[in-house]
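Field reference: sequence -> structure
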Amino acid sequence: MNRLEALERIESVTREWALVVTCGATAREMATVSRSERHLPLLDSMGLTCAVGLGVALGTTSHVGVVDGDGSLLMGFSILPTLATTRPANLTVVVLDNQQHASADGMASQAAQLDLAVACAGFGFAVDEVADGPALGRALERAVEARELRLVLARIEPGNAEGVPLLLEDPAVLASRFAAALEAPS
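Structure field:
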């Protein structure tokens, strides 16, 4: 499964969720799948996706999803103890693991040598490892049913989708739309 296929599956299951999306190619590709106001792409904020998602989850009763990459999660790895101790039941973290910084010319990430699923399980998270779209969809559905913090590690192919335009929207405008969408009755 490539990242675009994974994002399409995530969108099909999480339409009612608030979704915080990591930067770079992931944010651009998600914008080609859906431009929902319930999505907050973190442009130029690598390593902060889980921290922002945690804050959103603590501030709402809606289910919140985080779509992070292996490189971004490793950059912000210090959030994991905080996630492990706060354990918001309305938060699901999806890590798209292609073992590279695809937006940085495919440079290998440390995930090429480390097992992120084992590392995250060491913090006491319920971790589902998946490698295809149907398994990803089932893991996301289980996350909502379980009513507990869960991490879904989706193994994806390296690389970026071709021809995806840059996402050049003002981050402040995106954040304002996202906040308004969370406040609106569903």
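Note: The chain has a mean pLDDT of 92.
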